[in-house]
């Protein structure tokens, strides 16, 4: 497995933030702050890949896109090989 980019759309509605992704079916996260949203999105991406049999390390990226927040899911075995 190669690293995968997961574009995440975060929208605000009143006092809540909601995140979805066109790249990762089933991603739907709600949080009361953007800090909590980042934590929840990272966990949701990890858990969705794990449910499909792939352990990943998730990191937020920056590509200057104003609509989507990019996240990267790195295969855990690649991360382990790079640091061990």
From TrEMBL:
Gene3D superfamilies: TTHA1013-like. This is DUF1902 domain-containing protein. It comes from the Bacteria. InterPro entries: TTHA1013/TTHA0281-like.
């Amino acid at each position: 497995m190669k690293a995968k980019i997961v574009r995440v759309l975060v929208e605000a509605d009143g006092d809540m933030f909601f995140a979805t992704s066109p790249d990762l079916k089933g991603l739907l996260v709600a949080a009361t702050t953007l800090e909590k949203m980042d934590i929840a999105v990272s966990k949701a991406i990890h858990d969705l890949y794990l449910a499909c049999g792939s352990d990943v390390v998730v990191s937020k990226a920056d590509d200057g896109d104003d609509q989507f927040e990019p996240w990267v899911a790195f295969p855990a075995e690649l991360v382990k090989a790079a640091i061990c």
